[in-house]
Amino acid sequence: MNPPRRSVVVMEGPHEGDRPAPKEAAGARAGAFRTRPARAAYVDRRLAELYPEPAVPLRHADAYTLLVAVVLSAQCTDRRVNEVTPRLWAVAATPEAMSRRPAAEVEAIIRPCGLARQKAQAIVESSRLLVERHGGQVPRTYAELEALPGVGHKTASVVMAQAFGEPAFPVDTHIHRLARRWGLSGGRSVEQTERDLKRLFPRDHWNQLHLRIIFYGREHCTARGCDGTVCEICRTLFPRRRPAERRR
User: What CATH number labels 63-162?
Assistant: First the structure.
């Protein structure tokens, strides 16, 4: 007995003549992202697909421990900060407790994070001011946060965004590099880059988007691993870009 015959369904695709030539396809893609808003919309959409629920990379329990962790992260990796902070919290995890610790003791604990003396002094002094001026609570305004030792605008922005849910767009080296590489900002300063990005992206996207850009910059569009032509987003936004056109 012959085996039953299998029916084969052939799905007809586009005819060869319907497909754009490679140069035409590249030109169409390039034309689609000719403006900053178009590039920003693609970046926003694609990063949301890649990182739907980005988590704050610095481990913390509250606004105070986040503040201290961000201070420690200056010129230090988040991974190293996360290795050091459990020892620090075991000694003092509140402004009241930290303000009573000798700066030398804090310095010894945080030494692996670099700039230990300056950071220890800033952490202890900021803790004392939080107790004296704010009842041991982290303030919720930029002016009050930036008045604390060791707290600049970027650190204040991270705390406002991730501790208090206020829309903010902290710009670190990854975001500054990618904003230029993706043609979203020509700013030579992080301040200009922050202003440009805030104009381009919806306000209610800022808090998650800045984390998404950081993660993508660490994992895919790195300073050395991508010259503006390697990663998916660079290839999509600038299909005609040559490797010599580097975007640092």
Answer: 1.10.340.30
